[in-house]
User: Which sequence fits this backbone?
């Protein structure tokens, strides 16, 4: 490791009304290292990055780049200084093409005209380096979140930088894509670039990081060589108390929950071309049905058909044995189905509304505008969920957009729990949520389930699917390839089933 850090952040303080996001935070980045910044939801990781990249102005403190004080005033200014960033909330332009997104703000010119051929060729190459092969002239919004995330990464990698910052870049990627990203990062390390990496996945932290800085409640806890900090020490540093990771990792040993004779929702041959091959699923009250499979296997597509977001072209759905047509989310909601989507930014939160308004949104919509929930009831409900889910905020009236990413996710979950649904579809509910909060959320989900809620659970973390599911429907290439008992299965058996379908 080089003797001199390329970047130093010293005694950084940043407060927002009612919240101290950073208090004397410290960070040192050396050339050629991958440095993980770890901390619970709301610990200040993203704020530290925003201060560094000119999105937020610090109240006090100093940033030194190659020994010289800098005060970037915008993301562009930071970029010009050689600090390139992939933000937690992907900040691309959904209406522009993939290629335009990779080159926006720095289009190569040919004479007076933008050189589209070069843009397209280089965008293709930038993505190919990450092993993504898509038509770069298509609009970004046509692609799933994971691809969008890869586009953001390709954009950051394709700019000349001394410092590369990645704030939870892997939250919607599958293992293969993470591996490709890590290969790209190793390449950059060899070029002596300093990489700052934020993730909640401990495996990833240890797979790629040289050193780890831990933040807690906006304060610097310590800086450690990754090889000298055990997982348990890391978690304890983040949480500030002793947590038993073994307890977290272990299956809870329960046997499959008993269920009624008749499924709550029974799906027969539900399909739509290009989305999912005709699929059969039975979802019972009091049980969690997990959807296992890799990215692109059709998990979200299945959920969207079931919730009436996309139209099914074939198949039937029965609720409590009676056939129903769920061709719009309204109808699904009326049948007691709730859907917590994976992409909280575009399909979930309304950033300008308060936490309270976001939490009561779905419930109010179901009641209709004529049965307005009294403010007192709204507040009580919001406060209850803030407490129950441990949402970190001074009060319920803050705009939800000001919460940290993980806390936004919790509020979104609260929105759907508030409607007291009969069935809850959870698509990546713990994406971006820290390890302690994850435990709490999964406990909450299971408690709801014991009260008779039916749950359809999607997560890219197979260990999580295994931990909560009574049964797992395994998907591959947009097709169901089998179903297994979630309590008896382990990761190997699920992956074997996925692989077996290949033959
Ligand atoms: N623009 C803002 N206005 C008000 N409060 C904010 C703003 N940005 C962040 N905060 C608050 O600052 C604290 C730190 O948030 P930050 O986003 O840095 O957390 P984080 O460590 O990135 O968390 P996560 O793991 O959930 O992404 C939180 O309490 C958050 O609500
Ligand atoms: Mg964050």
Assistant:
């Amino acid at each position: 490791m080089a003797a001199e850090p390329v970047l130093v952040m010293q005694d950084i303080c940043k407060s927002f009304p009612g919240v101290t996001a950073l208090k004397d935070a410290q960070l040192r980045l050396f050339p050629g290292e991958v440095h993980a910044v770890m901390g619970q939801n709301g610990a200040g990781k993203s704020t530290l990055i925003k201060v560094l990249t000119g999105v937020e102005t610090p109240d006090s403190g100093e940033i030194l780049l190659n020994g010289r004080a800098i005060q970037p005033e915008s993301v562009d200014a930071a970029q010009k200084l050689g600090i390139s960033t992939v933000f937690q909330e992907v900040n691309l332009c959904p209406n522009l093409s993939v290629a335009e997104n990779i080159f926006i703000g720095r289009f190569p010119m040919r004479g007076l005209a933008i050189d589209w051929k070069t843009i397209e060729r280089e965008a293709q190459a930038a993505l190919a380096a990450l092993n993504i092969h898509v038509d770069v002239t298509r609009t970004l919004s046509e692609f799933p979140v994971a691809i969008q995330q890869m586009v953001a990464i390709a954009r950051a990698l394709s700019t000349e930088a001394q410092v590369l910052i990645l704030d939870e870049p892997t939250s919607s990627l599958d293992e293969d894509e993470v591996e490709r990203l890590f290969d790209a990062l190793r390449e950059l390390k060899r070029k002596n670039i300093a990489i700052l990496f934020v993730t909640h996945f401990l495996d990833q932290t240890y797979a790629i990081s040289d050193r780890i800085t831990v933040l807690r409640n906006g304060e610097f806890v310590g800086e450690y060589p990754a090889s000298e900090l055990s997982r348990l020490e890391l978690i304890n540093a983040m949480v500030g108390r002793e947590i038993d990771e073994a307890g977290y990792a272990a299956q809870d040993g329960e046997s499959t929950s008993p269920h009624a004779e008749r499924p709550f929702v029974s799906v027969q041959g539900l399909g739509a071309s290009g989305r999912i091959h005709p699929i059969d699923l039975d979802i019972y009250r009091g049980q969690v049905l997990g959807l296992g499979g890799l990215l692109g296997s059709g998990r979200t597509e299945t959920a969207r058909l079931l919730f009436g977001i996309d139209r099914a072209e074939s198949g039937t759905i029965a609720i409590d044995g009676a056939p129903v047509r769920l061709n719009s989310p309204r109808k699904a909601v009326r049948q007691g189905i709730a859907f917590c989507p994976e992409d909280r930014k575009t399909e979930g939160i309304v950033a300008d509304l308060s936490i309270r308004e976001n939490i009561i949104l779905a419930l109010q919509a179901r009641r209709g505008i004529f049965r307005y929930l009294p403010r007192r009831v709204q507040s009580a409900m919001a406060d209850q969920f803030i407490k129950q889910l441990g949402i970190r905020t001074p009060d319920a009236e803050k705009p939800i957009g000001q919460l940290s990413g993980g806390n936004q996710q919790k509020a979104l979950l609260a929105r759907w729990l508030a409607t007291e649904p009969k069935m809850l579809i959870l698509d990546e509910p713990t994406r971006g949520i820290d390890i302690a909060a994850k435990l709490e959320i999964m406990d909450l989900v299971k408690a709801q389930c014991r009260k008779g809620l039916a749950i359809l659970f999607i997560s890219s973390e197979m260990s999580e699917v295994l931990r909560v599911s009574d049964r797992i429907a395994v998907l591959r290439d947009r097709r169901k390839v089998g179903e297994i008992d979630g309590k008896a299965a382990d990761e190997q058996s699920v992956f074997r089933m996925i692989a077996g379908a290949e033959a």
Observations:
- The longest strand covers residues 19-29.
- The chain is about 35% helix and 25% strand.
- The longest helix spans residues 175-190.
- Residues 16, 19, 21, 39, 41-47, 88, 392, 402-407, 432, 434 surround adenosine-5'-triphosphate (ligand 1) (CB under 6 Å).
